[in-house]
Amino acid sequence: MKNKIFSIIAVAFLFIGCNQKSKQAETSNLEQTETASGQYACPMHPEVIGKKGGLCPVCAMELTEPISKTSQKAVVEAKAETKINEVILSSFTINKVVEDYLKLANALANDDSKAAAKVSAILSVTLNSSNPNELDELGKKKYAKISAVINEHLKHIIGNPADIDHQRAYFALLSKDMNDLIKAFGTDKKLYQAYCPMYEEGKSGYWISETKEIRNPYFGSQMLNCGSIVATVK
Fold first, then answer.
1. N or C end: fewer C-beta atoms under 10 angstroms in the chain?
2. Cα separation of 123 and 97, whole Å?
3. Which residues on adjacent β-strands are paired with residue 41?
4. Distance between first and last Cα of the chain
5. Quick one: how far is CA 219 from the chain centroid?
6. What mean pLDDT comes out for the span 23-46?
């Protein structure tokens, strides 16, 4: 009877021992799988990966969390998707609109009303061709509102190629709206707001310039250097 009891106890210990070894083997296999990539993640910012002991550039904590090759692949794919989304969100630009506006300002500074009409037609096409669909609803509405007003001003400049005074009056109105457009959507160009106190008794003599050099679009050769830079446009 005693021998039977001892046999049962021995079998129980053997089962427990095998079970513990099995668990240790599973843990070891898991650790090997987790560290197979040789990469570790930040405990606070799991998207940051690198060698063990490295520092997270965001919070300066050590990279201590092991990640598997599968996890690493998921992180890489997520980063790639994020970069694609960033490109999509940032691809809308008004840079070409600004370039055409600056050409219009130069045409008026050169007293060339025909060139001003031609450039204004190009500016209108550029304005209408810019695709604001990548913006949120508020951005779309804002762009549509400002561009609609600018187009109305451009019609007067396009439709009066022999009347430069009329063109300049609407250029003054257009310049205000262009300033609003740039402030709303930004540009990678460094621009300045210039001002001529002599135009319309100082009421509306503003325009946007790409340089600090004054080339007055309101008076042209009559007073080409009249005015000053009053602000940086952002």
1. N
2. 6
3. 49, 65
4. 95
5. 37
6. 56
Cα angle 150-163-110, degrees, rounded to a multiple of 5? 80
DSSP annotation of 64 reads: -
The b/e string for 157-177 (b: 16+ C-beta within 10 A; e otherwise) is bbebbeebeebbbbbbebbbb
> Regarding predicted confidence, which is higher, 134 or 174?
174
DSSP letters, 155-196, are HHHHT-TT-HHHHHHHHHHHHHHHHHHHHHH--SS-EEEEE-
Q: Per the structure block, which two tokens stand in for 200?
A: 């319309």
Helix axes 95-109 and 113-129, enclosed angle (nearest 10): 170
Provide the token pair at 7: 């046999």
pLDDT digits (tens, 9 = 90+) for 114-132: 999 999 999 999 999 988 8
Q: What is the mean pLDDT of residues 163-180?
A: 97
Specify the pairing of strand 65-67 against strand 39-41.
antiparallel
pLDDT tens track for 62-110: 778 887 654 555 555 545 544 444 444 347 899 999 999 999 999 999 9
Instruction: List the beta bridge partners of residue 67.
Output: 39
3-state secondary structure of 35: coil
pTM: 0.62
- The full DSSP string for 87-146 is HHHH----HHHHHHHHHHHHHHHTT-HHHHHHHHHHHHHHHHHS-GGGS-HHHHHHHHHH
Among 189, 187, 203, 185, residue whose Cα is nearest residue 146: 185
